[in-house]
Specification:
The chain is built from twelve helices and three strands; from the N terminus they run E-H-H-H-E-H-H-H-E-H-H-H-H-H-H. The protein is mostly helical. It has a single domain, classed as Rhopdopsin 7-helix transmembrane proteins, CATH 1.20.1070. The protein has a three-stranded mixed β-sheet. The protein is globular, with a radius of gyration of 21 Å. It starts with 10 loop residues before the first strand and ends with a helix.
């Protein structure tokens, strides 16, 4: 299954769980359920936010961005992973693999920056509620979202295209998809520049937003402690703890992958970690950020009521 060392690689074989057929069947079922839940939950959020004018606020504007992003993020790789579970030789062309790698990297960085923007939005809403409508104007919201999408493209896709990888040996990727760290380990050209840029980029897109989010929630915590109502404090703590759980899982696993020393060997542990930050957060984000909110529940009841009336 490997190419000869003196030939150029034109396709890759994605190992996944092909060595464990029974585990692969269970993995396929779990992944399919997760993907369908991600599509359903995030699509529902987008529909409700578009449909109900009461949800046309800064918070739900960013949530709609996150929902759209999560649909794109999971769709960039999970359909291919599901197909690979059903074929005997899960092959992917070099061009498709690099496109999948760039898309996953780009959308992952957008999520990192967008979660930081959402933490800033909540910090202003709770810390300075009277001036919140003025400080988080519609123009600023659009600017923050645009910066997240555009800067991520400049930080990921452009450098990847300007420093191409060369593959001239092994073509076995010990992963479910063309994830950056799994692919780059097969490159045969000098990677010192790529590794330096990856570390700098990871600091900007992973570590810095994560520290900012923790600082924002620290400020939110101080504001919550000033709430006199015990029920109000309990509700705020419940919401914040849910947000932080998703954030810590996403950033913690991504940081452990991209900011720790790497070797040339792909390990099964890396595949499990990639599931934690690539599959679970997009599936749980609708529930954590939206579906438990009374405004969203009200919009859903309103939508279902009008459908029943019609």
């Amino acid at each position: 299954m490997d190419e000869k060392n003196d030939t150029s690689v034109t396709y890759f074989i994605l190992v996944g769980l092909s060595e464990y057929p029974r585990a692969q069947v269970i993995f396929f079922c779990l992944l399919l359920v997760s993907y369908l839940m991600t599509l359903l939950g995030n699509s529902l959020i987008l529909l409700l936010i578009y449909y109900d004018s009461h949800l046309h606020t800064p918070m739900y504007f960013f949530i709609s961005n996150l929902s759209f992003l999560d649909i794109c993020y999971t769709s960039s790789s999970l359909p291919q992973v599901l197909i690979n579970c059903l074929v005997s030789i899960p092959a992917i062309s070099l061009g498709q693999c690099l496109a999948q790698m760039c898309a996953g990297l780009y959308l992952g960085v957008v999520e990192c920056l967008l979660l930081a923007v959402m933490a800033y939005d909540r910090c202003i809403a709770i810390g300075d509620p009277l001036r919140y409508p003025v400080r988080m104007s519609p123009r600023l919201c659009v600017q923050l979202a645009t910066v997240s999408w555009v800067s991520s493209f400049l930080l990921t896709v452009i450098p990847t295209l300007t420093t191409p990888l060369e593959f001239c040996g092994h073509n076995l990727i010990n992963h479910f998809s063309c994830e950056l760290l799994a692919v780059i380990k097969l490159a045969c050209n000098d990677l010192h520049l790529n590794e330096l840029f990856m570390m700098a980029s990871s600091t900007l897109t992973l570590l810095a937003p994560f520290v900012f989010i923790l600082a924002s929630y620290g400020h939110i915590l101080r504001a919550v402690l000033k709430i006199r109502s015990a029920e109000g404090r309990k509700k705020a703590f419940s919401t914040c703890s849910s947000h932080l759980t998703v954030v810590i899982v996403f950033y913690g696993t991504a940081i452990s992958m991209y900011m720790m020393p790497q070797d040339k060997t792909s390990r099964d542990r890396d595949k499990i970690i990639s599931i934690l930050y690539g599959v679970l957060p997009p599936m749980f984000n609708p529930l954590i950020y939206s579906l438990r909110n009374k405004d969203v529940k009200g919009a859903l009841r309103k939508l279902m009521g009008e459908k029943n009336d019609s």
